[in-house]
Write a structure and sequence with these properties.
Bound molecules: zinc ion
CATH architecture of the largest domain: Beta Complex
Shape: elongated
Order of helices and strands: EEHEHEEEEEEEH
Helix content: 10-25%
CATH superfamily of the largest domain: DNA-directed RNA polymerase, insert domain
CATH class of the largest domain: Mainly Beta
Strand content: 25-35%
Mean pLDDT: 94
Largest sheet: 4 strands, antiparallel
Radius of gyration: 20 Å
Distance between the termini: 31 Å
CATH topology of the largest domain: RNA Polymerase Alpha Subunit, Chain A, domain 2
Number of strands: 10
Structural class: alpha+beta
Number of helices: 3
Amino acid sequence: MPKVKLIEESGNEVTLQLDGIDRSYANAVRRFCISEVPSMAIDDVVILENSSVLYDEILAHRLGMVPIKTDLERYILPEKCDCGSPLGCHKCRVLLVLDASAQDKIKTVYSGDLVSEDRDIRPISETIPLIKLAPGQAVKLEAYARLGRGKEHAKWQPCSVASLTDGKTGDSFVLKVESAGSLPAREIVVKAVQILEEKLKEIQVSVGEK
Ligand SMILES: [Zn+2]
């Protein structure tokens, strides 16, 4: 009988002991934590004004790497949304606006300056530096965050670490997951198991049809 025991949970980390589970299954859970569990990241940026020294592309890339708080209950993956719009709708994307300018001295623009239309979906930290503006320079943009998966791009990886080590017996493993901040570590593991179960069920159904 498979058993899961919580060994430690603190901050962004969770450590679980998995007993009576096949190594390949335990490793699939670990891999799904990294590549299949969706999280939010900025994906599209419409630059309205940029007189800073940074190229638009670099600024957009930097915005993409900012971890965004994620709510998997309220948002769905764009490919699963019925809106069919490339810009998305309120179920599959969140708009964040940045409007910053430097007056008489150099100004650093931080992740906290991004104003989200959904107060629950915003950068996990307000102090990530995005850009430095010299007096007279300004940046104005619209950034669209959406759910994606780590297998598409690293910016959607919900965890920074997911490791599997051998436990005390042959069918015992220790799974350690460290969240990048967008989702609680425990939720990443629960979701990974859920997605894995769904995929296994799909295989069962398609094999049964043959
Ligand atoms: Zn949609």
